[in-house]
Amino acid sequence: MDKQLFNELVQSMEEMVAIEKGEMQPARVHRHPLPDVKALREATGLKQDEFARAVGVSPSLVQSWEQKRRFPSGSALKILLMLDHNPAIINDLLAI
Q1: Which of 8, 28, 70, 81 is deepest in the core (most CB within 10 A)?
Q2: pTM over 0.85
Q3: CA dihedral 29, 35, 36, 38 (to 10 degrees)
């Protein structure tokens, strides 16, 4: 490995440790806005188990999302974002 590349890697690791310890702020932080699952579900008029079936997850996961104990990710997040932009697709999801 090139010595300069190795030194840059070591410096990056040291910065990571400093950020984790709170001694340094990251240069940038990228945050994705998360949908308000409870508001989405309530807007559809569905119960948690019905909404879970439409989205393709368990009712306990929907409950965890609503209580902010867990956060949607992957395809479930995409579906929730689609619902946020177009609530009418809930009917298509329920039909699948």
Answers
A1: 81
A2: no
A3: -140
